[in-house]
Predict the 3D structure of the following.
Amino acid sequence: MNADHDHGDHPRHEHGPHGGHAHHHPADSGPRLVWALLLTLGFAAVEAATGILSGSLALLGDAGHMVTDSASLALAAFAAWLARRPPTERHTYGYGRVETLAALANVLFMVVVVVGISVAAVLRIFEPATVNGEAVTLVAALGLLLNIGVAWLLMHGEQSMNTRGALLHVLGDLLGSVAALVSGAVVMWTGWMTVDPLLSLLICVLMLASSLRLLREVLQALMEGVPISLSSEQVGRLLASIPGVASVHDLHIWTLSSNRVALSAHLVVDSLQAWPAVLAASRHALAERRITHVTLQPEPLTNNVHWLPYPDDRRRDLK
């Protein structure tokens, strides 16, 4: 009996109740990213000029964030376009993994920015500089409104690792605008200049935490590990509980792209004649867990041991 393979050659082969969802949003993620890029890059120039004239590190830091965001949004837009290209003989899974690579680049880019701003903030604490509170407050308020709009734009598009990586930068800018706004107000009313670098450090800590969380998910995908949202043991027991399945072995689950999870497994069945029904039930159960690229190999019950292998090579009964 041959294996059933949900081939990755064409997007139309995605099945299950969530299959259509995986192909609805990517088409509009590119334009959203482009609009976000244009808005962000335009305002970054305004913030940079005002930051230089006013002497505000918080405002310059926010402008720096927006410049890096422009690069990250450009990378994300390119990755979204490339991911929609059809599979080829050399890339039979397509180019969806490029979005994961773009997310990795954006996370590492953000870490570099956080380190740079943190160093500048520490130096500014020991050597305070004069800040024009009024100018900082005005531009930071405008920047906050812009970043809220860009974040809303991205949050209502495709939620892939790629767009989440870009959104991470935008949220960093949004927090940076809040910091600059508070900094400008405090300087304007109290004249306390040290608040500017202190708030910059606070934003850096928050953004570093978010970056590391996304980095963990990206590295898990690149290492072809089981997606963080799934458990190989639970999925194995799910398949083993399907009527007609005696046991499961050689189970593998990995990420093809942000919205595509792949699975392959050998199912030991009571009767090969019942395989069509077992296959349909298995695919339906997996699709409910957003696993839509499936390869299942049936094996007769005779002389098969009922176990499921795990990465630590332990064998566990499923029955």
Observations:
- Helices lie at 26-54, 57-83, 97-126, 133-155, 161-190, 195-222, 232-240, 275-287.
